[in-house]
Amino acid sequence: MRTVIVSGASSGIGEATAARFAEAGDRVINFDVARPTGPAGSSISWEEVDVSDWAAVAGAVAKVESEHGGIDVVVANAGISIRHPALEISEEEARRVLEVNLLGVLALWRHAARAMSASARPGVLLATSSVNGLRGYPLYADYNASKAGIGALCRTFALELAPLIRVACVAPGAVLTPMQRAEYSDSLLEAVNGCIPAGRHAAPEEIANAFFYLASPDAAFVTGHEVVVDGGETAGATTTALAKPK
To answer: Contact at 8 Å (CB) between 81 and 183?
Structure first.
């Protein structure tokens, strides 16, 4: 049984990812500020953790290591987005997006990697990046920057921590999560689907499957890269025009 930390696992991609590992028999700990609302399996526990609080992250990681004898896999998934034009972004909004999405990954990876390294325990560090970090996308400047930064962290951590620890990211395209549903009207969702070669949004479980693969021995030679799961969106089709401000 592996010990797996998934941040932001109370909903969306994180919830599906935690369930995927738990179904395989792994022990999963959810780091989230929100209490899970769905049914929790006996192998999924919840720790109230704000990933932007480095001291809280350090304490939670130390607790997991102490109680379970080590950490095998970390999925840094917690993230937020705010839909707003670049010229209207407030300092408070931008700092919060970057502190959660980018510095939250750095904090969780750093503390988990230190624990893995100290015990010479092989491990895997994963994170949710985004196709938004690979191209421009109107109305999400701070979010896009945070996701691009995760890719840079991934490459750097992979070089510094190899061969003991592997590091990789999953870059989803459009995924039908509660966060996405709250920001998009039915008509916009339909329009976005029309611009994706696959013709639809991904289900959170499809992204969870990518994380599960990257954490498995089948991906033993994969490190320092982002795996894009986007239904062909970035192969040529684009949804950016749909979000362009008038």
So the answer is: yes
Report residue 225 as tokens. 């890269």
Question: For residue 18, how many other CB atoms are within 10 A of its CB?
Answer: 33
Cα–Cα distance between 56 and 163 in angstroms, integer? Answer: 28
- Dmax over CA atoms of the chain, in Å, equals 55
Strand partners, 227: 170
Question: What's the pLDDT tens digit per position in 148-195?
Answer: 999 999 999 999 999 999 999 999 999 998 877 777 788 888 888 888
Nearest to 150, CA basis, from 130, 122, 180: 130
The owner of tokens 């390294």 is 117
Active-site residues, by number, are 143
How far is it, in rounded angstroms, from Cα 232 to Cα 199? 9
CA angle 182, 183, 185 (to 5 degrees): 90
> Is pLDDT at 246 greater than 80 in this prediction?
no
Q: Are 73 and 25 in contact (CB under 8 A)?
A: no
**Looking at 54-202, which runs of residues are DSSP E strands?**
73-76, 123-128, 165-172
206 class by beta-carbon count within 10 Å (0-12 exposed, 13-18 middle, 19+ buried):
middle
Instruction: Check residue 192 and give its pLDDT.
Output: 86
Phi, psi angle pair for 69, to nearest 5°:
80, 10
Between CA 10 and CA 242 the distance in angstroms is: 29
**pLDDT tens readout for residues 38-94:** 665 567 999 999 999 999 999 999 999 999 999 999 999 999 999 999 999 999 999
